[in-house]
Amino acid sequence: MNFGLMGPGVIAEKFANACQSCEGVTLLGVASSKKERAQAFAEKHGLKKVYASYEELLADPEIDAVYISVIHTGHFPLAKKCIEAGKAVLCEKPLTSSYTDTMELIRLASERKVLLMEAMWMVFLPSVQKALEWIRKGAAGTPEYMTCNFSNFCERDPKGRLFDPAQAGGGLLDVGVYCLDFLLEAAGKEPEKIQSLLRIGPTGVDEMGTVAFRFPGGLLAECAFGLRARLDNNGYIFCDNGKIVLRDFWQCRKAELYDKQGNLLESVEDDQQNGFVYEIRAFCQSFEKGEKECPQMPFHKTATAARIMDEILENGK
Ligand SMILES: NC(=O)c1ccc[n+]([C@@H]2O[C@H](COP(=O)([O-])OP(=O)(O)OC[C@H]3O[C@@H](n4cnc5c(N)ncnc54)[C@H](OP(=O)(O)O)[C@@H]3O)[C@@H](O)[C@H]2O)c1
Q1: How many Å from the N-terminal Cα to the C-terminal Cα in the chain?
Q2: What pLDDT, in 10s, does the model give residues 65-103?
Q3: Within 13 Å, how many C-alpha atoms sit on residue 241's CB side?
Q4: Atom 3, ligand 1: which residue's CA is nearest?
Q5: Which of 5, 6, 11, 32 best tests ligand 1's pocket when mutated (most atoms within 8 Å of CB)?
Q6: Atom of ligand 1 nearest to the CA of 37
Q7: Cis geometry, peptide bond prior to residue 94 (ω within 30 degrees of 0)
Q8: Domains identified in the chain and CATH numbers
Q9: Do the Cβ atoms of 175 and 309 come closer than 8 Å?
Q10: Average model confidence (pLDDT) for the chain?
Q11: pTM, two decimal places
């Protein structure tokens, strides 16, 4: 499978490195709005092709799929172009910056029968999968309360993508999306009630946020996310007979199962250094099978998170 990459920035490095560990996957070429940037990236990673524009990449019949790693606001227009060109799309999170745009991409991909997936790599991690298996099997009993948080401290740079409203900055779209997806995966259903609070900072974006959820059946959950606090970034599922702990849940390499006395019953660790390999393999499998959505990250998950993020941005201010 030949990938083309659009947006050779920070996270694109990790994707390019992961491709090296995925059998049958070649990162064939790269396009950027600045050709010199694409050139430098191609040299660093030994890529065969450098395109003069995104359009040139899309016109290459050798390209099967495109990985989009531009900033959030570029996801929608580029993904739309890719789908229209008939290329499969693996697009960085969040798929778009709004529910409306997300639904438009899903509609278009369905209509054109093109594989589209939000690159929510967390759900493919083996330790996250293990934790979900423990929940489904009731290994710690019935979940009663879940919590997770994700925030690293970032300097306020009004021109940088994280703090600039024009670049869809803010903690929710950048890291809060992981919290939402984690809680939705763990609950296995959509919440019936959500209450949110955001702190809008001096540059006009949500710098810190906290959200509480109630799921049908009574399961409660909360999360905190943002750009200014150093949180521990762990995820916890507290059950009536024990608990499940995911260290650094969004890039989890260690999940632990405890009984009600706090004894460790089981622990799984993943020694894979680059967790992107799992999502890439799953995406490629779907492509090979001719699937138009990936079973582990189907459209409804992306759409639900997008709808809830719109709601939080509307009601949390
Ligand atoms: N999965 C993960 O763990 C993870 C981690 C970090 C980020 N991400 C996601 O990846 C995406 C990119 O994040 P990043 O940190 O890699 O971004 P970045 O390095 O700041 O920029 C990536 C690319 O976006 C385009 N870009 C940058 N600034 C721009 C601007 N002001 N106007 C228009 N385009 C601009 C450029 O593409 P061109 O070179 O084509 O011009 C750049 O190469 C984000 O959507 C983010 O959510 C995911």
Answers
A1: 44
A2: 999 999 999 999 999 999 999 999 999 999 999 999 999
A3: 9
A4: 11
A5: 11
A6: 39
A7: yes
A8: 2-121+278-287 (3.40.50.720), 126-273 (3.30.360.10)
A9: no
A10: 98
A11: 0.98
